[in-house]
Amino acid sequence: VPVIELRTPAEIEEMRPAGKFVASVLTAVRDAATVGTNLLELDRIAHQMIKDAGAESCYIDYHPSFGGSPFGKVICTSVNDAVLHGLPFDYVIKDGDLVSIDFAANVNGWVSDSAVSFVVGTARPADLRLIEATEVALEAGIKAAVLGNKLGDISAAIGDVARDYGYTVNMDFGGHGVGREMHGDPHVPNDGRPGRGYALREGLVVAIEPWFLETTDRIFTDKDGWTLRSADGSRGAHSEHTVAITADGPIILTARD
Predict the structure, then answer these.
(1) Which residues of the chain register pLDDT less than 50?
(2) Closest by alpha carbon to 81, among 135, 138, 139, 130?
(3) DSSP letters of 88-149?
(4) Residue 104: beta bridge partners?
(5) In whole angstroms, what is the distance from residue 180 CA to residue 47 CA?
(6) What is the CA radius of gyration of the chain?
(7) pLDDT digits (tens, 9 = 90+) for 120-145
(8) φ and ψ at residue 147, rounded to 5 degrees
(9) Given this model, what pLDDT does residue 1 score?
(10) C-alpha distance from residue 37 to each of 90, 115, 180 (Å)
(11) How far apart are the first and last CA of the chain?
(12) DSSP string covering the chain
């Protein structure tokens, strides 16, 4: 039976610094990602920001059942046909690369988790459309994260956007509860049926994270034991925010300025 933890309004306030910090790191890493930048340099920037803030990485020692070994880096860098859990390696960003950065950190005992996708340099319209779909789906999922709705309403809102754009949805990885740990219950699939599942309650904090691939919903794990790539070599995009459900509506804790 999933144990779903609810946060008091005071605890949600305590979570804000983690959200702000995660947003600031994603902004800095995105700004640093130019043609000619090495992925390891992006990881180094995030590492330094963690150190300077007195924060803790959620990734560096992370070793779940699906990971090949402890992750060993502080951000996920997924490029082109990679979409999730991209292990930073010695790769120099090229003109036109589609880059997804995922980052989670613990500040004062609270975790936030967020992701952003963007094209470096000259963008293909198809890539911009794919990124847009994940962002629109994220907005739709957040809009559905209100009292009176069920978890299925969030999932259905995301899945509907994917279909509108002509993409299919992989159900292996989705959103999740966030709190003292990076991953908790409930699981938030990126497709589902409205009006079904857990009734959303005040104080629920979840990471909502649509990710789509251009022409498939099948993935495989790279030989690095971590990076998830599309089965057909098509590109992927990923957008994610940590969201608190409150009486006044959803609060996006990881909102970037």
Answers:
(1) none
(2) 130
(3) P-S-B--TT-EEEEEEEEEETTEEEEEEEEEE-SSPPHHHHHHHHHHHHHHHHHHHT-STT-
(4) 113
(5) 20
(6) 17
(7) 999 999 999 999 999 999 999 999 99
(8) -60, 140
(9) 72
(10) 10, 19, 33
(11) 38
(12) --------HHHHHHHHHHHHHHHHHHHHHHHH--TT-BHHHHHHHHHHHHHHHT-EESSTT---TTSSS---SSSEEEETTEEESPPP-S-B--TT-EEEEEEEEEETTEEEEEEEEEE-SSPPHHHHHHHHHHHHHHHHHHHT-STT-BHHHHHHHHHHHHHHHT-----SS-EEE-SSSSSEEEEE-SS--TT-SSBP-TT-EEEE--EEESS-S-EEE-TTSS-EEETTS--EEE-BEEEEEETTEEEETT---
pTM: 0.97
Strand partners, 220: 229
Ramachandran bin of 13, using left for φ above 0, alpha for ψ from -120 to 50, beta for the remaining angles: alpha
Whole-number pLDDT of residue 11: 98
Q: Are 119 and 128 in contact (CB under 8 A)?
A: yes
Bond into 186 cis (ω within 30): yes
In the numeric block, the tokens 């497709």 are attached to 191
The pLDDT of residue 236 is 98
Q: What is the mean pLDDT of the chain?
A: 97
Contact between 235 and 225 (Cβ < 8 Å): no
* Token pair in block for residue 28: 């800095």
Hey, what are 68's tokens? 């090949």
Q: Around 65, how many Cα atoms within 13 Å sit in the side-chain half-sphere?
A: 0
- In the numeric block, the tokens 């890493």 are attached to 29
